[in-house]
Amino acid sequence: MKRGFTMKKIINYSLFVFIILFSSCEFEETHTKETHTNTTFIEFNNSQGICDVSVYDDPRRRDEDLISKISAGLKETFKWTPSESMPFYFKYHVEVSRIPFDYIPDMGKDQTAVRINPDILTIITIPRLDVSSANKLLSNSCLIMIQNDSSYSFRFRQGSASLTPSNFSLPVVNAGEFAHYSITPGIVSTYNLSSGSQEISFPSSLNGFKAGYAYSFVLYSSGLSFVSETELIMGNISISTVPGTTLANKLSWLESEAQNGETYYIRFNSDANIPSYENKKDITLVLLGNDTMRTINIGRFLINSGTLIFDENITLKGGEIQVNGGNLIMNLNSCIKDGNSSGVFVRSGTFTMTGGTISGNRASYGGGVYVSNGTFTMTGGTISGNRASYGGGVYVSNGTFIKQGTQSGIIYGNNAVGNDENGIPLRNTASSDANGHVVYYSSTSKRNTTVNQSDQINTGTEQGLSASGNAPFGNGIPSTTTSLFEIQWRDGNMTSSSGGEVWYSFTVTSGTTYRVWWDERNQSSGSKTLNISVSAFYSDGTVIFRNIDSAWNEPRTFIASSSGTVYIRVTPYSSGDTGTFGLVYSRGNIRP
């Protein structure tokens, strides 16, 4: 008996082994489950979104609370810890009047609390921005937008304090830059722009910078221009960034998913190629470059419906752009160049040019713009360096070309290689060429050679057109002008035989700063008898400043963009007046 086990011992031993094995199995199972359920995955889905959205895990939406910024049309997946109820909060990145703006919904709206389960992917659909309440106020802030289209830099000041733009780290805004500010609402006169020794006031017609509004301005070398006042309401949001990681993805998405009546943006971070694009839907599509000029090599652009906007920092190069029934808009800092056809061919619909440049295009009719039908309206920008057999700048057959306003753009340096029906050369190789036809209206064979910002043209009423063409710069730059010498005052006399204008000139060097003062009746040394308006041009017709009525206390300052001759045109402030005045220029900042 001592050499073996009793039945009782065997049973007890077996039970002991079973308990150990069972306990071991149970421990192993519990350990495995605990590791597996500590982590799962969640997906933030913004595939139906109309703007980029930042996701936070705290309602304060601080930087340390940010989970991720999800682009419109995309989704992202993250490793996460399971939770019974996890809240998420959203911030929508939109634009109002081209100013980036962060919209935070009211507490309790557009936020999500979900159970995050183990073992399965939890999908969190980001609420689509609700734009149905068009009058909903987005913010009590006041936003200021300034496009610097002058040849000098500026600072935006409140009193004597310089304000730093929201999109820059320094207060100085250089030529060609676009700055926006969030300011305290208040009286307009407490704010100004400072450029060198000049102080530039905001228009007194504004009744104040109001809370809940965005204000848009353009600074030209000739002064500050007020563009728009936009209320910060839901209905004024620039709706959508087109989703997709490549240009092909974005264009494909527009074809299949874009909703009629909405606005979409394509922002280019680099140069790109677009073989062809046809806008068939009733949408507004905005093309623009991020931060700097981007060149888009194009094949064929057809605008059949809706609106296509070439916005800032975008160059469309080569190819063909046709407006067949929709609307095309060119804004500041956009460019259409080097096409083997008209820069823009308007077959129907409308083309509006508020800024930008059309140059280097070649066609039989209308090197810059050919208006077959429809309407071309020019309120700003430049058409230059184009070539055609007829109408080097603009050719109009059955449509209408309208150029209106005191800053309505310039047309110069275009070349038409043939002759018209009277054998007159259709050249415009220089702005002072009185025989050149930068605009040609075939229905009546009338034309125009003017290039000034303020020239008024309407082919529908034949305003600004004649059988022989109109000379540029009013009566034209005369072959002989009176020379100005630095820091030497030149006395002038406007008489009844002056023809309403007197011309002066002086030589400039590219990159050098020049200042021009004049002495007149109202702001003067007290010895002059005539109030005058003064304009300045480069020899190619480019306007430096135009119709400025005073520069005694503060000079008109410009940086020469090229070396050569600058022409100064003096006219009476009130047409027909005569009397004496004086002019001087200097590279220094103290009036001689």
In short:
With 592 residues, this protein is mainly beta.
Map the helices and strands.
Elements lengths: L6 H31 L2 E6 L6 E5 L9 E5 L4 E6 L2 E14 L2 E5 L7 E6 L4 E5 L16 E7 L6 E4 L2 E3 L14 E6 L7 E5 L2 E4 L11 E8 L2 E9 L5 E2 L1 E2 L5 H11 L5 E6 L3 E8 L4 E6 L4 E10 L3 E4 L3 E4 L2 E11 L3 E4 L6 E10 L3 E3 L2 E4 L3 E3 L3 E4 L3 E3 L2 E4 L3 E3 L3 E4 L6 E3 L2 E5 L5 E3 L11 E3 L4 E3 L8 E2 L23 E2 L6 E5 L7 E7 L4 E7 L12 E7 L4 E6 L7 E4 L4 E9 L6 E8 L6
Parallel strand pairs: 1-8, 9-15, 18-19, 19-21, 20-22, 21-23, 22-24, 22-25, 23-25, 24-26, 25-27, 26-28, 27-30, 27-31, 28-32, 29-33, 30-34, 31-35, 32-36, 33-37, 34-39, 42-44
Antiparallel strand pairs: 1-4, 2-3, 2-5, 5-6, 5-7, 5-17, 9-12, 10-11, 10-13, 13-14, 15-16, 35-41, 37-38, 39-40, 43-50, 44-49, 45-48, 45-50, 46-47, 46-49
What does this structure look like?
By secondary structure, this protein is mainly beta. The protein folds into 5 domains: 1-37; 40-125; 142-231, no CATH class; 242-458; 482-586, Jelly Rolls (Sandwich), CATH 2.60.120. 7% of the residues lie in helices and 45% in strands. The protein has a 20-stranded mixed beta sheet that branches. Strands 2, 3, 5, 6, 7 and 17 form a 6-stranded antiparallel beta sheet that branches. A hairpin with a 2-residue loop joins strand 5 (83-96) and strand 6. The longest helix is centred in the first third of the chain and has 31 residues, at 7-37. The radius of gyration is 33 Å and the shape is globular. It starts with 6 loop residues before the first helix and ends in a 6-residue tail after the last strand. Mean pLDDT is 78; it is low at 1-36, 417-437 and 468-476.
